[in-house]
Amino acid sequence: MNDYELRKFVAPEFVFGYGAAGLAGRHARNLGASRCLVVSDQGVAAAGHTEAVARTLRDEGIACATFLGVSENPRDTEVMQGSEVFRAEGCDAIVAVGGGSPMDCAKGIGIVVANGGHILNYEGVDAIPKPMPPLVCVPTTAGSSADVSQFAIIRDTPRRVKIAIVSKANVPDVALVDPLTTLTKPRELTAATGLDALTHAVEAYASNAHSPVTDMFALEAIRGIGTALFDVLDDLGSRDARARMALGSMNAGLAFSNAILGAVHALSHSLGGLLDLPHGECNALLLPFVVRRNYVAAPQRYRRVAEALGVADALAAPDDEVRDALFARLGDMRRRAGFDKGLAQYGVTRDQLAELARLALEDPCLSTNPAPLDARELEELYVEAF
Amino acid sequence: MSKRSDDLRAKLIGLGQASTRKSYYPELKERLQQLELFRALLESAGDGVLLLAAETLMVLDANGAACRFAGLPWEALTGRPLAAAFPELAGWKPHLSGNAEGFVPQDGPRTSAWHMADAAPPAGGEERRLIRQPSHGADLWLELALKRHDIGGISYVSCIARDVSERLRAEEELRESERKYRALFEAANDAIFLIRDGLVRDANRRACELFGRPLDQLTSMAPRDLSPPEQPRSGATHLAEDIRLAKALAGEPQFFEWTHLRADGTPFDCEISLSRFTLRGEPWLIAIIRDVTEQKKLREIMVQTEKMMSVGGVAAGMAHEINNPLSAIAQSAQNLQRRLTPGVPDNEAAALMSEVDLERVQHYFELRGLARLVSNIREACARAADIVRHMLDFARRSDAERAACDLAALLDRAVELAENDYDLKKRHDFRNIRIVRDYAPGTPMAECAPTEIEQVLFNLLKNASQAISQKVYPQGETPRITLRVGTQYGAPGLPGGIGGIRGVGGVGALCESEATGASPACTEYVRVQVEDNGPGMDERTRVRVFEPFYTTKPPGEGTGLGLSVSYFIISRNHGGHIMVESQPGMWCRFTVLLPAVQRPT
Ligand SMILES: [Fe+2]
What we know:
The structure holds 2 protein chains of 2 kinds.
Chain A: E1 13-16, H1 24-30, E2 35-39, H2 42-46, H3 49-59, E3 63-67, H4 76-88, E4 93-98, H5 100-115, E5 124-125, E6 135-139, E7 151-156, E8 161-166, E9 174-177, H6 187-206, H7 212-234, H8 239-259, H9 263-275, H10 279-294, H11 299-308, H12 319-337, H13 353-361, H14 375-384
Parallel strand pairs in A: 1-9, 2-3, 2-4, 4-6, 5-8, 6-9
Antiparallel strand pairs in A: 7-8
Helix pairs in contact in A: 1-3, 4-5, 6-7, 6-8, 6-10, 7-8, 9-10, 9-13, 10-12, 11-12, 13-14
Chain B: H1 3-12, H2 25-44, E1 48-53, E2 59-62, H3 64-70, H4 74-77, H5 82-85, E3 126-133, E4 140-151, E5 154-163, H6 165-187, E6 191-196, E7 199-203, H7 205-211, H8 215-218, E8 230-231, E9 235-236, H9 237-249, E10 254-261, E11 267-279, E12 282-291, H10 293-340, H11 345-354, H12 358-368, H13 370-395, E13 403-405, H14 407-420, H15 422-428, E14 434-439, E15 446-448, H16 450-469, E16 480-489, H17 504-512, E17 524-532, H18 539-544, H19 562-573, E18 577-583, E19 587-595
Helix pairs in contact in B: 10-13, 13-19, 14-16, 16-19
Bound molecules: fe (ii) ion (FE2).
Fe (ii) ion (FE2) binds next to α6 and α10 of chain A.
Protein name (chain A): Iron-containing alcohol dehydrogenase
Cofactor (chain A): Fe cation
Pfam families (chain A): ADH_Fe_C, Fe-ADH
């Protein structure tokens, strides 16, 4: 593959740094907002972030209506409820405060409000005809990177699958990445979102759609997260570690939003859709096996990943050594972050694996996986992680 | 890798056909174009459109028509109060209830930018006003419609100004033309009906007068309700009416003679022109009804006069020719009688010479009744001479002495004569007839020969009593002769008419405005009427009643010349008029008009 194939890079206007969340009101006003729907969830609201952002909005003379009805894997029904609130309250802009769930839900609300109909009508890539109302994202978890990505993942409750709505229209107008908002994040969530971010960076780097620009963000993210994650887990109150984690996550987001992901996310979306399993933990479990399986398709890429994660002699050692070392490193990181369950322990049964593989095969993320995989190969990966 | 996943990958990494960041600009551009189009529409609108701030009524925007109405350029109009555009509105405030009453934003304004499509447009209060707007040239009449709108939390008032000058002018012209036609309609000397669906829907003043009915009565009647059941010329009224109406409705104008009834039941003749016109898509008929009673009378009188004059001439000529042989017969009969009379020397001598005893000749004459035959000849001659004398009178101008006479007194004397007349006393029982007198006070004198007029009046009374004797009176009705003396302006057939039907006051007023007697219509007449309640006469009799020798009486009763003589006395000798009207079976009325003596002015 030559390095100068056509590539695009899309990113929102973003502000990174301490206190960035305080700029929500200013940015919303500049986008023409007069009455905002603030989409958040109970946990984030309880931590006080939702109200803090709403206050900056009111300070700018912008009225607020709040929608907190978002669960961990945001559902189509929640999106529809949120868009009803938006209409009923006569809102003209959306501000999302929280992790991936409120942000994905906020994107869904924006899509429905601008285009009408049901959110499930917009499944797929480039299927959104009209741009949504102004959207400002204030992420409070360093992980999902929905604040910079063109992805919105919504759970289709009747079919029990996660659908991906991918469109440049999903890229928010402004992302306000404030590391201080992540200080309140509990340990387990910090670990899970951190590993999700790492997965984003690794998959984006190995992606068959990577580009010189995404490579920079991806590698920088892998390097940053590789050290920052454990610094944070050692000291949850460290502003510096939280900031490095947030930066790593954002870099990963910028990378994967453009280079897209791979088999880990395809497999993981399938688990989340069918069994409602936590996204970050699934990624952490599956990542080593997928890397091991993909290695042969992009050895030079994975060598760089290994190098970025501090694997010794990663650029010179024989391929199988590097592959195994990387496999081991990723497994170690997962265990060190506190996760050691196999799929069976998450309640998955053997007879579900074929169905999960079939669903994963449909996932758009699979199209940028460095190695082409069929259903049988996907099922084998589940078996390995069982 | 499959084609499908190739496409998917291209879109994912942002290289698909539609993989660009979405921009509001295309839609915004479309909206802007819509706005521009809308603005162009507004500009080209004939109505003035102004946008005002709700509280201050300050003009925020205005289209070309609004600027034209205000007589101000856009720059001068905007930013100024509405009263600057329309001075009549100074100090005025519309009562427009805002639609925002139900919802007051709790925490700031709200807009409807994203739910416009789902929400119904706000319904604000509306107010209308008609103003007169000064303008170079004629003033404009503008109809303003103000309406309140709440958009994006701000209240506006829209003001649509419509130039209704043309409409008002057209309405005024219409009203004027309506007034004009109404005036024509009302001023017409003919009665006019507007008919729809066979009923009179409108009628003019003349129609009310002619039919003697108020408008509201006429407007619920059909023409047949105003007519006798039979028409003299065209049979059953309702059939004739149906035919006329149908033909006229079919677009064939009708012109025909008709008999109508007044409210009191008296018939009158008219000429009707009936034609169709269309009003608001519905077929109407206009009936113009001309009362021809007077014309008919005039015509009748002219025919009568001509006839009478020629008959009079013939009769006088005849009388003159008959007179000589008649004198010879009378003379001879007298001589015959005398030459048979004994004691006359010539008779005695002739008898002696013939050796005949004159006494015996006389005896023979008596035995054969010859003397009575000769008497009969003489009597017949005397009667014939009497007739001949009357006939000669037709052609001879009277030389009797003229004087100003009180016709009431003459009438009374004629009644006295009649009461003492042998014939009337014996054969018609004149004294049993009730005489009703209706003499209008202040009636002027008439210039006439009293003996001649007395004779005329006597003739009329005699005629009346003869008529009464022909009728068998039902229970409760008694023989009656009504005598009237009064004044009348105008002669028959001329405006004013015989009965003065056309509003007595109106005629009086008309005449007083002119020199008395200067116009024939205003000649003052003394009117004498002799009316009996006898059997009356049919139309055929009525038109011939003045002709010489025309009589309905059995032979031997009168000469049949009485009314003829009366006619000549009145019309030729006195320049007056004599007429007869009758309701068969009910009454008969003779009217004599004699020119009144001119009163000193
Ligand atoms: Fe993820």
